[in-house]
Specification:
The complex is a heterodimer of chains A (445) and B (128). By secondary structure, chain A is α+β, with helices and mostly antiparallel strands. Chain A contains twelve helices and 18 strands. Chain B starts with 5 loop residues before the first strand and ends in a 20-residue tail after the last strand. In chain B, strands 2, 3, 4, 5 and 6 form a five-stranded antiparallel beta sheet that branches. A two-stranded antiparallel ribbon of chain B has the order 1-7. Classes of the chains: A alpha+beta (445), B alpha+beta (128).
């Protein structure tokens, strides 16, 4: 069917990372309910470091360790979803999916909604099974170790009647592949269809990044209503092809350009996009605008899934110190450069990165080659930033103290000092045979 | 006699977005119009991109072409000073880097100027 009319599964996405807007779900849920038919709402809230932070939170409090904004995300829409049979699938379980599930059960009771059947997906957390990781974690103080697991447990839980599926580290697109597998009953080696659903999930997984978010550039790439962006809905057909749209009356933009930008986001070889479920191939993909804010993706092919799963290991990684001070007016840039030179002379134990914000900063490299290659200019509003990391807290902290001391010892007219000192987390990754990752799911008892 | 080529920054012919995984950055370059595709393929090369990013010392630059989408995807290895957990950059993901690439100068034949987008830059050689 040209526009995927007929039997489609609608999947809406109301969060693309932990920290996304928490008022996005309402219009998506209303659009799904108005459309009728089978529908799923997903929230994608995990990044590499989010899980490590969640593990640290759970060490402090055994009931914590799931998405801190869970209540803000679900409270506005949970009762409506249960009433309209819109299933909810998310990785907001983070390091404690059971805890998140209990929170959702309490919330439903508090809202006077029917008691949801909540499924919990487990097995991704390998922090207690470091022997499965091989050499990669040797000598590291491990904070978290999680395998990216696939869609099968989600599909099984939905098939068994779950209203809500709470996961930890599943691959982001699997949040969409799971519902599609359950709804259409595809074979689990139907690589083409799995790949198409995977790319639908890829388009949704960053929330508004496919509906005009992270796209606007005034005069070049104009997006209407950026302050009230609609979050995406994928209409997936029985062959896995999808049409991306958004709730009526919301801001934002979906055209072939917004969809192509998101299609290639965080992709390396477009002919081999590797997930736990399938290897997707975009080599012959086609993106077509059907109508304003309706864009269809076809032509995606699939290849057999990999035998191994990717595991991310987060570990403690010393301290990051940062300090900033501003200079403005005549010779501001020269004064900021002098302040940087003073810091370098005062802090020989640290490898400093210096930025001249307003002259050159984020394009530059830690080694300072970009800064050194540039010509000294006449910047008149310049913020010096210094940054360094060190295994030893006290050594790192000296940077913050030296930047503060520039108030009385540095060049003239410096103001607005801010400093920070934070523990750092590092990440290493490895591959683990699928059979070593004990994926399972069960209903919350 | 051929009319002289016009010099424009890449962002008038294409748009793009940066993604990161570990110490590797990927940057898409998507033509504003199919008519611009051949020019992009000829001029937005692995060598041109490696040169733009030379201060970040890429160990490898790979260009993947997607002619159906009139898009290409650059993968730049080891350009993020270790990546989000190790870099000292304010932008440790390298999210701004698409805008470094989109400043690449292009030479455009005059009959293609109708396919360019965006405001005219005041730089010398740009369109009036």
């Amino acid at each position: 069917m040209a526009d995927g009319q007929g039997q489609v599964l609608r999947v809406g996405c109301a969060a693309g990372f932990s920290g996304d807007r928490t008022d996005a779900a309402g219009p998506v849920v209303e659009a799904l309910a108005a459309a009728g038919g089978p529908a799923v709402l997903i929230f994608e809230t995990l990044a590499e470091r989010t899980l490590a932070l969640a593990q640290l939170a759970r060490r402090q409090d055994p009931d914590a360790g799931y998405e801190p904004l869970l209540d803000d995300l679900l409270r506005p829409v949970l009762a409506r979803c249960l009433a309209a049979n819109i299933r909810i699938v998310s990785n907001f379980g983070a390091a404690n999916p059971e805890g998140a599930a209990r929170h959702i059960a309490r919330l439903a009771a508090e809202l006077g909604a029917r008691a949801p059947r909540i499924a919990v997906v487990r097995g991704d957390d390998l922090s207690g099974r470091q022997h499965t990781l091989g050499d990669v974690a040797q000598g590291l103080e491990v904070v978290s170790a999680n395998a990216y697991i696939g869609a099968e447990a989600i599909a099984d839980a939905l098939t068994a009647g779950a209203d809500v599926v709470v996961c930890g580290r599943v691959a982001d697109p699997s949040l969409v592949v799971g519902p599609a597998l359950a709804h259409f009953g595809w074979a689990r080696d139907d690589w083409d269809r799995l790949a198409r659903a995977t790319m639908a999930g890829h388009l949704l997984e960053c929330g508004a990044q496919v509906t005009g978010g992270y796209y606007a550039d005034p005069g070049l790439k104009d997006v209407p209503g950026l302050a009230r962006l609609g979050y995406p809905i994928a209409e997936i057909d029985a062959d896995g092809h999808c049409t991306i749209t958004k709730p009526p009356g919301t801001g934002g933009l979906i055209d072939t350009h917004t969809v192509k930008e998101q299609l290639l986001y965080e992709v390396h070889d477009p002919r081999a996009y590797v997930t736990p479920d399938v290897v997707a191939d975009l080599g012959e993909a086609v993106v077509t605008e059907l109508a304003p804010d309706r864009v269809r993706l076809t032509g995606v092919r699939g290849h057999p899934r990999p035998a191994d799963l990717k595991v991310n290991v987060c570990h403690t990684n010393g301290w990051l110190a940062e300090g900033e001070i501003s200079y403005a007016g005549a010779r501001a840039e020269a004064r900021a450069r002098l302040a940087g030179a003073v810091l370098k002379e005062r802090l020989p134990a640290l490898t400093l990165r210096l930025d001249l914000i307003g002259v050159t900063s984020v394009f530059a490299d830690d080694a300072g080659r970009h800064l050194a290659d540039g010509i000294e200019g006449d910047g008149r509003d310049v913020r010096l930033r210094a940054a360094a990391s060190h295994p030893d807290r006290a050594t790192a902290e000296r940077l913050a103290r030296e930047v503060t001391a520039l108030y009385t010892t540095g060049p003239a007219g410096g103001g607005g000092v801010r400093t920070s000192l934070r523990p750092r987390l590092g990440t290493v990754s490895c591959l683990v045979p699928r059979e070593h990752v004990p994926v399972a799911w069960s209903f919350l008892s | 006699m051929n009319a002289p080529l016009l010099h424009v920054p890449l962002h008038r012919a294409a748009h793009g977005r940066t993604g990161d995984k570990g110490n590797r950055s990927n940057i898409s370059v998507i033509a504003w119009s199919p008519a611009l595709w051949d020019t992009l393929v000829a001029q937005v090369t692995e060598d041109a991109v490696a040169d733009l990013f030379r201060h970040r010392r890429p160990t490898k630059v790979t260009r993947h072409l997607l002619p159906n989408l009139h898009a290409m995807n650059f993968v730049l290895d080891d350009v993020l000073d270790g990546g989000v957990n190790d870099s000292l950059n304010l932008d440790s993901h390298g999210k701004a880097l698409s805008y470094l690439l989109l400043d690449l100068p292009l030479a455009i034949s005059p009959e293609l100027t109708g396919h360019l987008r965006g405001p005219v830059d005041p730089s010398p050689g740009d369109l009036p």
